[in-house]
What does this fold into?
Amino acid sequence: MTFTETIERAREESRTLLSEVEAKIALAEAGVPVTVTRLAQTREEAVAQAEALRYPVALKVTSPNVAHKSDVGGVVLGLENQEEVANAYDEIISSVNANQPEAIIEGVSVQEMTAPGVEVIIGMTTDPQFGPVMMFGLGGIMVEVLGDVAFRLAPLGTGDAQDMINEIKGRQVLDGVRGQPPVDIDAIELILDRVSAFAAKHPEVLELDLNPVIASPEGAIAVDARIVLAEA
It folds into this structure.
């Protein structure tokens, strides 16, 4: 299914929030490195999808009503075998039903875990006056705690991605601290440029968040993705 077809389906279903699976498929087609993610609608499907991937895997709730999965118990990480996957599926469904009973649960996403690294956030939002604006900063909960982010108008020009990375106060974290190796800055720049190009190509996208992107000496890869469409 093309991204245009995904948008059309979302419009038909009267929703603006794409599922993580839909978002990652679209971004992968645009050349953005993302973890392999598959939808499972039953515990048996979750086990089968996990077996087709490499352990360890992560399970995350898939719902058009759940924006922050961890807040409602919708994420379980580091699953090593079939039994753990099956139990995690039941745990997620039960927890989301208890914490957000009005949520429509479409299933869970099953995805590969990635090696540890530095968490960064790459995003795009649409400003009413200036249009699409790119964002970069330290990711995970750090973006909420520190708010250490840099912005540029999209589409990015030559050198903009590098300037955004160098602008954040936590820049030295990317160079390696306390014996940690430096991350692949070129890989982060590549994702920034490709997300910028994706946003320019698809004005239907109102917001886009990759949080976290795991950056390491070997590259950078998005482990979570969120796309919000503009109202039709």
